[in-house]
Amino acid sequence: MKVLVAEDDLTSRTLLVSVLRKWGFEPVVAEDGEEALALLEGAGAARLVLLDWSMPRVDGVEACRRLREREDPDDPPYVVLLTGRSEKESIVEGLEAGANDYVTKPYDNEELRARLRVGERMLALQEALNGAKAALIHQARHDGLTGILNRRAVLEELERLLLRTGVVVALCDLDRFKEVNDRHGHLVGDDVLRAFASRIGERLEKGDLFGRYGGEEFLLGFPSPGENRPRLEGLLRDLSSRGLPTRSGEVRVTMSVGAVWGRGGGRLDLLLARADEALYRAKREGRDRVVF
Ligand code: GH3
Ligand code: MG
Ligand code: MG
Ligand code: MG
Ligand code: MG
């Protein structure tokens, strides 16, 4: 792990660097606070920081304050002030400036090493937290079965497209899906829904939207009014000509689609109602078709 060492005194710096190397850290060296701030910027910078207090230009406490002001709240560096100032007021000032820890010189090697390990644990905890947060955010927007956008997310995205440019909304409903469940069981039905989502997903282009509206109903959104009928018909043919892989072999399904163009600035609920009417017509006219 990289450790940034900001220390103006050559002897202290050399000692610190050699002991850090011995412990397996990768020291990055700054000779004052300003250099430290520059080295701590950007991706790949050290997250563990050792700051001397008294340094020319920008001192350690000031560097610490500035670090805290500009830090990404999801990726704060772990800062240890390492200083000869041992009076209580300085310790309080250093910690209030945002230091995570405060070590006085002359420091004991074993203690410093243990305190750096505390820093590593804190950084690992932050990383785990970030991972969990990212997973939760993903879960909140994606359907658990198929992995595509869930109802809320796809409606949000359609709303956004509708505001900006207008959108073609295609409401897709698998035909006689109840029979798939009745014939093969619900687990195979679930496999079909997953395979369906990935089959459609393969054929999407950048900027297209695709999400699960609910059950065996899906929403597609295309940002431009042209060329969509042949694309939707291509999806239908693709679906009806090749079975979808499931745990008990291939299952062939078809879908019916109601598609409508929504002009920029229109209302999504009205657009969806029109798509639903078109879908109803597609079902009534024999299924496995698109109605615009
Ligand atoms: P239609 O052609 O008129 O759309 O007929 P359908 O059978 O597809 O329509 P219906 O709305 O009567 O039935 C939908 C079926 O989809 C019933 C329900 O059990 C099934 N279904 C909905 N969600 C899931 C799911 O997550 N997994 C499985 N396996 N089945 C689901
Ligand atoms: Mg100094
Ligand atoms: Mg349905
Ligand atoms: Mg159906
Ligand atoms: Mg139905």
TrEMBL record:
Task: Give all 4-aspartylphosphate modified positions.
Answer: D52
Q: Pfam families from the entry? A: GGDEF (PF00990), Response_reg (PF00072)
Per UniProt, residues of the GGDEF domain are 165-292
Origin: domain of life:
Bacteria
Share an example GO biological-process annotation for this protein. phosphorelay signal transduction system
Q: Which UniProt keywords apply?
A: Phosphoprotein
Q: Which GO terms describe its molecular function?
A: diguanylate cyclase activity
**Is Zinc among this UniProt entry's keywords?**
no
Q: What's in the GO CC field?
A: plasma membrane
Transmembrane stretches, by residue range?
none
Q: Give start and end of each Response regulatory domain.
A: 2-120
PANTHER family linked: DIGUANYLATE CYCLASE DGCM-RELATED, REGULATORY COMPONENTS OF SENSORY TRANSDUCTION SYSTEM
| Protein name as catalogued | Response regulator receiver modulated diguanylate cyclase
What organism does the record attribute this protein to?
Answer: Aminomonas paucivorans DSM 12260
